[in-house]
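Interim report, section 4.2 (structural modelling).
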Amino acid sequence: MKDVLVFLCGFIAVAIKQGTPLLFGSTGEILTEKSGNLNLGIPGIMYMGGVSGVIGAFFYEKAMAGQPLNPLLGILIPLVCALLGSALLALIYSFLTITLRANQNVTGLALTTFGVGVGDFFGGSLAKLFGAGGSLSIRNTSTLFRSTLPFAEDWGAVGELLFSYGFLVYVAFVLAFIVSFVLNKTRIGLHLRAVGENPATADAAGINVTRYKYTATVLGGVIAGLGGLYYIMDYAYGTWSDGSFGDRGWLAIALVIFALWRPKTGILGSFLFGALYVLPAHLNFGENRMVQYAVMVLPYVVTIIVLIVISMRKKREHQPPQSLGLPYFREER
Amino acid sequence: MNQQTAIPAIELKGVSKRFGSVIANSNVNLSVHKGEILSILGENGSGKTTLMNMIAGIYFPDEGEIFIDGEEAIITSPKDAFDYKIGMIHQHFKLVDVFSAAENIVLGLDEKGKYDLSSAQKRVADICERYGFEIDPKKKIYTMSVSEKQTVEIIKVLYRGADILILDEPTAVLTPQETQKLFAILRRMRDDGKAIIIITHKLHEVLSLSDRVAVLRKGEYIGTVNTAETNEAQLTEMMVGKTVELNIHRSEPRDAVPRLEVHHINCSNREGVKVLNDVSFVAKAGEILGIAGIAGSGQRELLEAIAGLQKLDSGAVLYNNPQTGKMDNLVTKTPLQIRDLGVRLSFVPEDRLGMGLVGNMDIVDNMMLRSYRKGKGVFLHRKEPKDLAEHIIEDLEVVTPSASTPVRRLSGGNVQKVLVGREIAASPTVLMAAYPVRGLDINSSYTIYNLLNEQKDKGVAVIFVGEDLDVLLALCDRILVIGSGCITGVVDARTATKEQIGLLMTKTNAESTEGGTPHGN
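Predicted structure of the assembly:
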């Protein structure tokens, strides 16, 4: 019995670690979509967040030349780099779709391709110049990001379940709660939701539609970018290799639909998606790759089922923001 | 409250507004006092809404001044209007569907203190109690009826502390019972000292509700009269004006046989409101049947019903097929099936670039929208449509760089010529045209009138929906008047007067039963 419990605690802990990048991504995307912007550039933005953090951390470690890192700077430099990298991409998206009114889907997809390309270019170049075997390791910074509370290891399974994570995991939770609170309990949230539902009405009510859209999209991009940073620094133990981030960005967008645009539901969804993601590794399928891949497809299957169910139930509260994906012209009637 | 303050709550002096070369308002003077209801009366396109939009800060007047409480006011945005305590309730509601009533009411307000929906709900409840509204502040907009949504809009304006309320055709979407309720509330607001302006074209409402009536005609300000000292006949005359001689050629219809018989059709819109109520009439080959009515009285639904685009609750549309001599019921058929029966129906819809033509395609491609099924194999045959396009450009004097110019780049008149040209080229037996001269200059309008007359002489049953009564009287043989989805009368265009039609147009459901006979000649 105790073994099962220990196994379960361990499994949940791994699921949470796996789910955290998705949680960052979906919280950021929910904030963005609530302003009426469907940002399909999120995978690219998360990738950029990760690689920007890697670049910052790498040069800081290099400057220290083997000396122990200053813990504050060691965290702050990659963090700021990641924020700037993802904010830049989100800003490009905002400028193209809000100011120039480019098609949101096309812009988003282009940005994903762009973010992944730029990320691989810089990450790959660094790995080729300074790394070994095509991957780059920034172990010292990663140690800082992964440091846990001192008593976590003394508490056994409970400690593992609750306290075995780096600080970014807790940041992801707190952000989801903050975004949920702002959206539902504040005037700013009311105005933002109005912008995403019906920008003409919001405009007539004296709300600055452009400002709300820009702010929400850039903040959303920054939050998503943290997911990329977390993945490299914490989950991957500070190892960069091309393409290892995988399809997590798309999963984050799927998670938005699964969570019905609610950040708090997104927390639960991220556990579930994380669990499904790591399930193949935990259950021993041996050499049977087919079953393994079938399990990995489950998060997407679940998302499709959710989409079918919400479309059939037609409950208005569960629908995406009404003007999601549409540009807003004041003059158009 | 002081019923007659010397200084009006709002006063307009010499206000004019132009859009390009179109004069929407010219030299309008009017005033409203506190504790008074003023009606603005006028036909479609007489500039009522434009005038009110200038007070509400949506447009800015080209000339003239607006005075609020005796002081000149510069209103450049809706926010300025709020600051002057002016609130306008538009015809199309500006509400967020998934929000509750209270959330919509506080939207955009920068109230001091923390965001507290429950205190807002309390204030909403206070307003409701004061004026007699019945609304649950927690109810979501998408679950509301049209009348409830309108209530939310009115409360929204009152919540912002408006003293001057403008309502743009508030009763157009309401049932008679709801209208009575609204009027009771408006009277209570008047007694509370608010200044109220209501746009309408229903005469009986004007007479029962307002203290004074201001009349506009084609952008001109005609005058203001006290309701107590006027009657329907005087108001109608002010509204429609004297008959203008237009000099449109009209031939006598020759052997007019019934071509299209509409029997008792009923139709409801998406909200479940009845838009056509027991409509019956006959359109004859070789004559032009005019349809007159206030915009949105069901003209569009009627034409779409005949074209097979509108689902009907009941009734039949019978087509007297000159080839087979049989009667075909069109109601249960799709546009394609109607075509396959050999029914040659041409439809010039109101929304030219929405329903009639594809704006981004050129004239030739737009010709092919009607003929793309012709030809063999998978390849398109562009020769015939190209010839047709060039033929239309030449015959109708369409001003265009070439036949391969996207139609959206043509002017309104030329777009209309392309559309009418294409529909006529299909040599129809029934030709329906909805507002075919809207937005067109005089010359283009006459080109269209001549085309319709030509078709009539060829023995086509022409149905012409128009808004200018002078044109209807000069062009048509018979005029069908429609009011709130009912036929309120059929008149002979050679003998009828504008006043007669104007009165029929402003009749509503309740009165229509004793109106003209639907099957009249």
